[in-house]
Design goal:
single chain; 190 residues; alpha+beta; six-stranded mixed β-sheet; 5 helices; 40% strand
């Protein structure tokens, strides 16, 4: 009975080490080819979200900019971490690249991947993204995490917040999921 638990624990610790190593890397998306792939993956994730959630497409048409993280890796066993890269789109064009990362301590176990998209609805919210110390979700402009039900019941007249976020493509098993506490930093231009 302890055999499967010990194997699971080893795999989880290895996944956590990988996530934390990724989180401290300075610029994993440095090469032009890597950025082209990230842009392509981000656009595909956004198109998939639009196809599944009509409200997301409505927001996309009104947003000043859209930040897409197509794949975030999250793992934890007491200590947790998450990291991933994304693309900022303005008027349908990739204009910058960002990293999201976070760490947590507490009762947690599991590993998963997911993606998320943030719709910046005004210039002030977008300007906060490039602050000197990075943009921390939950500090500064208001961020509303949307699900399909909330998106269907919302209209452009009821949507008055600074930033709307959609979490998608969840795979794996992890107790708890959110974007609160993530720090988003701009990757160097290369």
């Amino acid at each position: 009975m302890n055999g499967p638990y010990i194997r699971f624990k080893k795999v989880l610790v290895a996944a956590l080490a990988s996530v934390l190593a990724t989180a401290v890397m300075t610029d994993a998306v440095g090469a032009v080819g890597d950025r082209a792939k990230l842009t392509k993956d981000s656009q595909a994730a956004l198109n998939n979200l639009y196809a599944k959630v009509v409200g997301a497409k409505v927001l996309g048409g009104k947003a000043v900019a859209i930040l897409v993280f197509p794949k975030i890796t999250k793992a934890g066993f007491g200590i947790g971490g998450q990291s991933g890269e994304g693309t900022l789109f303005k008027s349908g064009k990739a204009v910058a690249f960002y990293r999201t990362s976070g760490a947590s301590v507490g009762l947690q176990i599991g590993a998963q991947t997911y993606g998320y998209t943030m719709f910046f609805m005004n210039q002030d919210a977008l300007s906060a993204l490039d602050t000197a110390n990075g943009f921390e979700v939950g500090v500064g402009p208001s961020v509303v995490v949307m699900d399909e039900g909330k998106a269907k019941s919302s209209t452009t007249t009821t949507m008055k917040d600074d930033i709307y976020a959609f979490i998608f493509s969840q795979q794996g098993l992890m107790a708890g999921l959110g974007i609160q506490g993530n720090k988003i930093t701009k990757l160097d231009d290369k």
